[in-house]
Amino acid sequence: MIRLVSVACLALGANLGAAQDLVVTNARIIDGTDRVIASGTIVVRDGRISSVTAGSVDLPGARVVDAQGMTAMPGLIDAHRHIIRGDPDQWMRETAADNMREFLEAGFTTVLSAGDSLEHILELRRLTAAGEITGPRIIAAGRVPLAAPTPGGGFTPGVDPARIDNSRPPHRPTEPAPAIPEQQTREQVRQLAAAGVDAIKTVIITTPGGPEQNTLSIVADEAKRQGIASITHAVTVQDTLAAVRAGTHTLVHTPHIGLLKEQETRLIVDSGIPMTTTLGIFMPTFAEDNRNIRNQTGEDNLPRFRDLLPFPMDTISSAGEGPVNARILYDAGLVYGYGTDTTFHPEDSFKHEIRALRLVFSRRDLMRIMTRNAAAAILRSDDYGTLEAGKAADIVLLDGNPLADIDALFEVQVVIKGGEVVVDKR
In angstroms, rounded to a whole number, what is the distance separating the alpha carbons of residues 389 and 275? Predict the structure, then answer.
């Protein structure tokens, strides 16, 4: 079993020492397994769920949280996020505590960091696990390259890499990239594992006759040896297929460049590799629906990209191909879980990603994507994603029923993380 699970238990354990027994009663319960209890009770002991039943339960000495008819569902998970904004040192000093609180207030109890400054994200993980900062559980990834740098290759500093996507013609490489020696790749994975990462993040853009698929197979193998996960950014159909053949553990994007064919769909689904959503990246954001979002001129009602600058219209085909591929894969049996690949305000990015998902998914589909599938996407189904006995007591209370109105997802009133009430807006 990969160490991603054991590290999670350590982080959970850091909070459980102070966890109080709880009874969440009078709740409509959406438990993440497709079961809905019209009015029921969740009993929490030592930070974990003891029972989920219809009706009421008495637990002497426990704190009672009366949901008063609100909806209880599993704590939310963003399976692909970039947490740190701007200068990491300044962010840690000045805004980390407030930003972590924003995640909890939006209902997110677990967040996978897919590429923040390693030193800073590991420290943030320590601070949140120790309770020195109140925030979501952090899963930290370190990066390993799949090929040696080439002249003119790589990303432009200060420019959102999705804005000028090297996966997309005319920027896509046309010559093979130089290979990295196998032992060097393995050593990089071992060093990151020793540093304490939960996962290895790779970006695959295959070059003609290049080494990327083979190197990724080495990364995935060494990560497994070290007990951690391999997560892979692949945004074209051809790169997604290469990542699947290489045996990565999680795909952190929906392919949104190119439309899937039946045989390609079958290969991806049959691999059993989960995938995160990230559909909202290539849909414009608008200020009237996303508070705290402004472009650099302060103007409203302009279509903007993820970096809050004018939207690059040459990429908008991805806003169609991504959702279509998502529905094709989901219907074929893919485990498809929620993730945003964003840096802006958690509630804003949540609303934006749901807007994209609603193009092709029903409310019931979205409940699966937001709960058990999101936990599977971070390889943590043993602990999170459903409200079942033995699972971590990560619970969100919503003022409304998201199976009737998906916007109820944004009406978070109470958040319980590891058995502790960390947000109560009532």
Answer: 26
Any idea which residue has 């079961």 for tokens? 35
CA distance 400 to 418: 23
Show pLDDT as tens, one digit a residue, over the chain (426 residues): 454 543 444 344 334 345 679 999 999 999 999 999 999 999 999 999 999 999 998 888 899 999 999 999 999 999 999 999 889 999 999 999 999 999 999 999 999 999 899 999 999 999 999 999 999 999 999 999 999 987 666 667 778 888 888 899 888 999 999 999 999 999 999 999 999 999 999 999 999 999 999 999 999 999 999 999 999 999 999 999 999 999 999 999 999 999 999 999 999 999 999 999 999 999 988 766 555 454 445 566 678 888 878 888 889 999 999 999 999 999 999 999 999 999 989 999 999 999 999 999 999 999 999 999 999 999 999 999 999 999 999 999 999 999 999 999 999 999 999 999 999 999
CATH number of 1-75+385-426: 2.30.40.10
Task: Sketch the domain layout of the chain as residue ranges.
Answer: 1-75+385-426, 76-384
Which CATH number describes the domain made up of 76-384?
A: 3.20.20.140
Residue with tokens 């990834």: 141
Burial state string for 185-218 with b = 16 or more CB within 10 A and e = fewer than 16 = bbebbeebbeeebbbbbbbbbbbeebbbbbbbbb
Distances (CA, A) of 272 to 217, 279, 332, 334, 385: 16, 21, 11, 7, 18
User: Which strands sit side by side in the sheet containing 199-203, from one edge to the other?
Assistant: 76-81, 108-113, 137-143, 199-203, 229-233, 250-251, 275-276, 336-337
Locus of tokens 């399976």: 79
